[in-house]
Structures are given as C-alpha cells and as structure tokens.
C-alpha cells in the first residue's frame, strides 16, 4: 500500500485520496481564446517531470497540493493550498451580447 | 427561500438502523447508537469567534476534540470546521440556539451533519485493538490520547474517530456516512465479537 502524507491528517493510505488534476494558472475566461481555454480545461503535458497537482483527502473533505514525479511516482512534497492561493478568485460574468438582449 | 432548521422536532427523528443483528451482546466492547441525538457543524473563518462568543471552549488545533459540560463533544476537524456532538441527548437546546444564532453571520456556514452522518459510541478496554482490525491508523492510547481525532477509513468507509473521556470512562466516538451505517454497525459488531 502506498502512503501519502496529508498536510492536515498525516500519513494515510493512498486509497483515501482522490486525484484532482494539475495546478495551472487559469486564463481569463472572458478574454482568452477557445484554444487557450480548452488547453486549460482538457490538456496536460505528459512528460517526465515534477508536477504540481490537486489532491483530495476524502474522509476529511480536504483539498491540498502535492508535488509528484511522473516517472518514479514519488510524492516529493504536500502542502496546504493557502501557500499558493491567498485570496478568493472572483468570476466576473460575461456581458450579455446584443443579440441575446433583443430576444 | 426560508432555510429549514435542522434542529427542529428532534422527537420525530427516526433511525432505520437494525440493532438486533449484533455480535456485541456478549462482547467486552460496549457500543451505543447516538445517531438521533442532536449535533451541529459549522465551517468558515468566523466560526472560531462565533463559538467563543457563545461561551464554548474550542480545541486550539485541528484534529483535536474536547468535552464540554460532561456530554457535549466539540470537534475541530480543520482550522475552520467545528462539529458539536451531543452524546447523551441532553444539550438539544444549546445546539438549537447555536444553529439559529449562526444564521446570517458572515463567514459562518452551517453543515448538515445531523442528517448526513451516523454516530456510534464504543466503550471497553479492547476497543483500540478492535479498531486495529478495520482501521489503518494507530488508535492505541500511547499515540492516540484523549482528545485526538482521526479522519480516516474504517472498514473501508470514511469516518471520523475521536477518543474522549467522560465520567471517568474512556470511549471512542465514530461519525460516518448515514447511508452506510447498517453495514458499518454490523462490520464493527463482527470485529468486536471476538473480544469476550
């Protein structure tokens, strides 16, 4: 059984964790191109390197960040997301288009 | 929309758990089902101040619990998440007051643990040994003293386990998903049946 170190709960069986995708900078949804948005949502670079990923400890409902090597699968570091995200992300709603207004 | 008060009409709460199928009757480990007893949870950056202002003691660290007024267990599950569990069903008024008092406060969000979780209590010298059969976390007294919390998997079901002491007796409190409660009750009864 693999062991992962949860920053809140300590070392736990890997079966208690759920993968949540790579940590990536979100492009501005209002100004970016469809290609940029698709790359953010769907694509990831599949190379041998250390990746920063979201992981979820299911019994405690806790999201955190782990750094993992994609070849050895070794988990190098885990930490609370407050180390990377220290303010709430606000989503501005898209302005209504003229076409929609006339309907 | 008017929000529903989860603490309302506690007398109408029903537990669908069938306790008759149990190997615990002869076991040295005594178990009790506290599922219908009142409890409330809050999450948010304002909860610590809210509970303190209500005169409640709170654990200083995440994954710690303490006992208030002999039978109210206060669990701190993370920096900003707290659950209050009434194990003898004597603190309903306090829990209802807290739930109503939290309405409309900034950074205080009510959690739904009353109707989402089952709550079991286990007593007996061998309880930690019994848990070692079904849980990967070491719950022996030397490494899991009174007031510790483990949020982990018990018999393959997500659970919150804490060790507390009230009226001179130690016990384990277990909170787990309500939908799996019949399975978990029987699994733990089976695990406990060898400790006669």
From TrEMBL, chain A:
GO terms for molecular function: sarcosine oxidase activity. Pfam families: SoxD (PF04267). It comes from the Bacteria. InterPro entries: SoxD, SoxD_sf. One of its GO terms (biological process) is tetrahydrofolate metabolic process. This is N-methylglutamate dehydrogenase subunit B. It comes from Marinomonas foliarum.
UniProtKB/TrEMBL annotation, chain B:
It comes from the Bacteria. This is N-methylglutamate dehydrogenase subunit D. It comes from Marinomonas foliarum. The lineage of its organism: Bacteria, Pseudomonadati, Pseudomonadota, Gammaproteobacteria, Oceanospirillales.
């Amino acid at each position: 059984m693999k062991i992962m170190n949860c920053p809140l709960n300590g070392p736990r069986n890997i079966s208690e964790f759920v993968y949540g995708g790579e940590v990536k900078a979100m492009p501005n949804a209002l100004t970016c191109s469809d290609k940029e948005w698709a790359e953010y949502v769907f694509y990831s670079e599949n190379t041998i390197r250390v990746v920063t990923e979201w992981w979820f400890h299911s019994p405690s409902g806790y999201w955190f960040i782990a750094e993992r090597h994609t070849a050895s699968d070794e988990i190098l570091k885990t930490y609370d997301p407050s180390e990377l995200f220290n303010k709430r992300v606000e989503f501005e709603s898209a302005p209504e288009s003229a076409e929609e207004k006339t309907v | 929309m008017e929000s529903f008060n989860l603490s309302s009409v506690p007398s109408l709460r029903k537990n669908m758990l069938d306790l008759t199928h149990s190997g615990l009757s002869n076991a040295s480990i005594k178990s009790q089902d506290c599922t219908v007893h009142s409890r409330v949870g809050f999450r948010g950056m304002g909860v610590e101040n809210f509970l303190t202002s209500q005169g409640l003691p709170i654990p200083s660290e995440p994954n710690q619990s303490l006992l208030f007024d002999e039978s109210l267990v206060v669990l701190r599950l993370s920096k900003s998440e707290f659950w209050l569990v009434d194990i003898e069903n004597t603190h309903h008024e306090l829990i209802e007051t807290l739930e109503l008092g939290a309405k409309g406060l900034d950074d205080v969000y009510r959690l739904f643990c009353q109707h989402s979780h089952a709550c079991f209590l286990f007593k007996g010298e061998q309880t930690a040994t019994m848990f070692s059969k079904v849980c990967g976390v070491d719950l022996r007294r030397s490494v899991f003293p009174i007031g510790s919390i483990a949020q982990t998997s018990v018999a393959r079901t997500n659970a919150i386990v804490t060790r507390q002491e009230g009226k001179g007796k130690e016990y384990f409190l277990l909170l787990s998903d309500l939908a799996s409660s019949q399975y978990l009750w029987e699994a733990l009864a089976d695990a406990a049946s060898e400790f006669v």
